[in-house]
Amino acid sequence: MNTGNIHIFVSYSRHDQLLVTPIVQLIRAIGGGVFQDVDSIPPGKRWKPVIQDSIDRASVVLVFWCAHSRSSKEVHAEWEQAILANKDVVPTRLDDTPLDEALAEFQSIDLRALAAGHLGKLNGKHKLLPGEADLARHRLFDARHANHLRHVDTAFVARSAQYICDFVVRQFGS
Question: For residues 101 and 146, is the Cβ–Cβ distance under 8 A?
């Protein structure tokens, strides 16, 4: 259970927990204080006030964005609270689901290419190569099963966590 400083609040749909949890664990391994509901809310506590307080204490809110999170009332409430509190909000794109208009105003982290296993580098910046977004979507999400997570590639998790950790280090200098 996370009881220390929260630098990062993770907002995601429970449908994507198998993908998000290993990324959170790797970020924690390098010393990042991360709030994830499944292991940061003490038993017996009302979850909604704990989540609201944790967003208030966080420096940055990572919103893992896909079809699941777009349809989640809880995810919507979390990123909306973060925006109202002037937090740094980082949409972290998992598929081609369009960002909500308010989220689209924030610079995002695009994990679609990493999901496909093809990360193109152009001028030192990560960019999607032609066709990678579709490949990523098909590799991670199976449309025949209502876009549920089909499998988790450990290399994807490691690259995603590294990409997010690099962002955190640049943001907070630690």
Answer: no
